């Protein structure tokens, strides 16, 4: 063999060796690709423009509810009508691909084999033939159903809160009442704001306030405006339940659990399931019940007396007290972990003596209630109104309500402090009880309001902004009242 022949054979050997290496690399690459294809979490597919599956990976079949890729390819004849929930969206998708565009993050709904709908994010590219026509569609599909539902729920919640916010905050500072709560003082405006925030949350609430300030009214307002409004509002006076009955009242019992347990009885927690449990006088609950309540609040559930069943219920606690619970914790009368589990949204309800500008509004409110029930209309004089404004109201709004009730019933103003009023009977009061000489209720109230405005303005040298701020009134409302009473500073 000559030299040229040897070189030829040598060249052939090198060429064969290179080809084998290339083939081996290609085989390894295909195996690697197939492993990725088979084990991918995302769905990978190829379809024709007419909607037939050409190939797909197992994840794609599972996503659409099929047991295997073969079953899916055999059963799905047209993805446009059988997989896409809206065929027109599929057509929009196809039109984009026909323009040789890559589609990315295309969020659509697919229909599974069982009929359930899922949200997916679709990434696809066109595969064209030699003539440039769309031949195949290759894509990757990610199931985003859970994320989509969370986003939709969040958007719906935000829209609801925006709507509620707009509705409830509209002219809130001009309002003298909030549901059944009366008062337009700065202190009560702060309470209204906290009610709005508490209503938008599902966190536990603690309301602090003296006896008679209206703690239950606040709790009911929060419940009615919350997502739990369709559930029950269950009020419980913790101080009125004997200690030996606390557990059975809260957690219920089963028939035969003890002597006298002739039937099953639901506890307060059962009644409040899906709603709100209002615990008035929270400081009166003993440590043993605190432990069991804490476990129920934290999701550990509770066991009714005489039962082996552990029950987990969905309820929210709004508590109220006139005690200093921090001192209770320090003295060992309340568990610290129970205190912090309840003390999430605190609301301090001011006593009536610290919001006396609300007294005329409350008097007017209670007068209207009793005037509707009782035909006789005893006159309220300026001296009486002044006496009620000077009174400290240790019983707060409840005391005021009772005073008005007694006044309509007995025709006598009876305050707890007799020094507040020299003579409580209207018959012995002077005839001239207002600037106009009238005993008409509205005239007396208007005259009194005028005096308040003049007093506040003089205290602040007729600085209307300061006076309006002190009274908790918007400047526009303050100006309107000044105009109503023809208040002009005389130099």
Protein described:
The chain is of the alpha/beta class. It folds into 3 domains: 104 residues, PAS domain (Beta-Lactamase); 156 residues, Rossmann fold (3-Layer(aba) Sandwich), CATH 3.40.50.300; 132 residues, Helicase, Ruva Protein, domain 3 (Orthogonal Bundle). It is 46% helix and 14% strand. It is built from 19 helices and 12 strands. Strands 2-1-5-4-3 form a 5-stranded antiparallel β-sheet. Strands 9-10-11-8-12 form a 5-stranded parallel β-sheet. Helix 7 crosses helix 8 and helix 14 packs across helix 16. It is elongated. The chain starts with a helix and ends in a 7-residue tail after the last helix. About 4% of the residues have low confidence.
Summarize the topology.
Layout: H1 3-39, E1 43-47, E2 53-56, H2 58-63, H3 69-75, H4 79-82, H5 87-98, E3 103-111, E4 117-128, E5 134-143, H6 145-169, E6 177-178, E7 181-182, H7 186-199, E8 205-208, H8 215-225, E9 233-237, H9 246-251, H10 268-271, E10 276-280, H11 287-297, E11 316-321, H12 325-330, H13 336-342, E12 345-348, H14 359-373, H15 382-390, H16 396-410, H17 441-459, H18 464-471, H19 475-484
Parallel strand pairs: 8-11, 8-12, 9-10, 10-11
Antiparallel strand pairs: 1-2, 1-5, 3-4, 4-5, 6-7
Helix pairs in contact: 7-8, 14-16, 17-18
Question: What attributes does this structure have?
Answer:
alpha/beta; Beta-Lactamase; Rossmann fold; 491 residues; 3 domains; 14% strand; five-stranded parallel sheet; 12 strands; Helicase, Ruva Protein, domain 3; five-stranded antiparallel sheet; single chain
């Amino acid at each position: 063999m000559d030299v040229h022949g040897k070189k030829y054979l040598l060249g052939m050997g090198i060429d064969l060796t290179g080809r084998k290496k290339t083939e081996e690399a290609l085989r390894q690459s295909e195996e690697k690709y197939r492993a990725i294809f088979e084990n991918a979490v995302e769905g990978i597919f190829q379809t024709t423009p007419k909607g037939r599956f050409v190939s797909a990976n197992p994840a794609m079949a599972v996503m659409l509810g099929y047991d295997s890729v073969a079953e899916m390819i055999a059963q799905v004849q047209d993805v446009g009508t059988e997989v896409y929930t809206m065929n027109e969206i599929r057509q929009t998708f196809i039109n984009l691909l026909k323009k040789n565009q890559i589609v990315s993050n295309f969020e659509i709904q697919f229909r599974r084999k069982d009929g359930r709908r899922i949200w997916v994010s679709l990434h696809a590219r066109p595969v064209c033939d030699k003539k440039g026509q769309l031949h195949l569609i290759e894509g990757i599909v990610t199931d985003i159903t859970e994320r989509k539902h969370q986003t939709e729920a969040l958007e719906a919640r935000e829209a609801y809160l925006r709507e509620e916010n707009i509705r409830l905050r509209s002219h809130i500072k001009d309002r003298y009442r909030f549901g059944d709560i009366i008062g337009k003082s700065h202190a009560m405006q702060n309470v209204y704001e906290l009610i709005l925030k508490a209503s938008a949350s599902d966190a536990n609430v603690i309301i602090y306030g003296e006896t008679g300030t209206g703690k239950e009214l606040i709790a009911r307002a929060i419940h009615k405006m919350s997502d739990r409004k369709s559930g029950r509002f269950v009020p419980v006076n913790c101080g009125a339940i004997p200690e030996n009955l606390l557990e059975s009242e809260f957690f219920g019992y089963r028939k035969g659990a003890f002597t006298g347990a002739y039937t099953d009885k639901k506890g307060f927690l059962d009644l409040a399931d899906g709603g709100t449990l209002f615990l008035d006088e929270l400081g009166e609950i003993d440590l043993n019940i605190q432990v069991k309540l804490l476990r129920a609040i934290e999701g550990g559930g509770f066991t009714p007396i005489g039962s082996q069943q552990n029950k987990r219920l969905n309820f929210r606690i709004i508590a109220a007290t006139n005690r200093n619970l921090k001192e209770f914790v320090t003295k060992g009368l309340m568990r610290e972990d129970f205190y912090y589990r309840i003390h999430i949204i605190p609301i301090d309800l001011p006593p009536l003596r610290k919001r006396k500008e609300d007294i005329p509004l409350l008097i007017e409110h209670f007068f209207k209630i009793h005037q509707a029930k009782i035909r006789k209309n005893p006159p309220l004089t300026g001296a009486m109104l002044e006496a009620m404004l000077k009174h400290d109201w240790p019983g707060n709004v409840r005391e005021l309500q009772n005073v008005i009730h007694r006044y309509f019933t007995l025709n006598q103003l009876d305050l707890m402090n007799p020094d507040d009023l020299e003579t409580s009977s209207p018959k012995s009061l002077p005839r001239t009880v207002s600037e106009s000489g009238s005993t008409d209720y509205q005239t007396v109230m208007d005259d009194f309001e005028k005096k308040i405005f003049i007093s506040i303005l003089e205290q602040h040298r007729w600085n209307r902004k300061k006076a309006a701020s002190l009274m908790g009134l918007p400047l526009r409302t303050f100006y309107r009242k000044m105009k109503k009473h023809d208040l002009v500073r005389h130099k």
